[in-house]
Amino acid sequence: MSANGNNTPLHVFRFRVDMQSDSLASGAQGTTPTEMAFAECTGLEATMEAKTIKEGGRNYGAAQRVGLTAFATVVLKRGVSRDRSLWQTFSATVGGQYAPRFQVTITMLDGNMHRIMGWQLAHAMPVKFKFADFNGKGTEVGIEELHFVHEGLSAVTGIEPDNASAGS
């Protein structure tokens, strides 16, 4: 049985990406990117470093404790957008005007384009923006890659089914 409570299989190629200005973005002059869709998303990953504690008299093995958690760079590939605000925001960051942060939500959709489950990136910051090559014979899309570093990955709870239309 799938996460949506029925036997319909969930496909990882149906997802949407939503971005909102983050609380760290106060004072920033940019706008929130809208109307974006991507074909691929990688890097939804968190790795916890284990701390090994060796104790005298504990001969069966060392104790393991929680260490720092590291988050992978999230890479969105083959995207389209008619909105230039994402590039303007990235350009302003490179120009040293400000370093905006976003709350990025990546939501998995079922076959009817209803939201099923999601992940949220806390204080996400765009660090790489790669345009597709210009080629009259090519079939590439406008945004080849968009990379985000972030300060936290969490599961989105309480997703209500809706008629999401910006899926990939």
Can I get a quick summary?
This protein has one helix at residues 85-94; strands at residues 15-21, 36-42, 46-53, 63-71, 74-81, 102-109, 115-131, 143-149, 153-156. By secondary structure, it is mainly β. Strands 1, 2, 5, 6, 7, 8 and 9 form a 7-stranded antiparallel β-sheet that branches.
CATH topology: Pnp Oxidase, Chain A
Main sheet specs: 7 strands, antiparallel
CATH class: Mainly Beta
Helix content: under 10%
Description of the molecule:
The chain is mainly β. It has a single domain, classed as Pnp Oxidase, Chain A. The protein contains 1 helix and 9 strands. The strands form 2 sheets. Strands 1, 2, 5, 6, 7, 8 and 9 form a 7-stranded antiparallel beta sheet that branches. A two-stranded antiparallel ribbon has the order 3-4. A hairpin with a 5-residue loop joins strand 6 and strand 7. The C terminus is likely disordered.
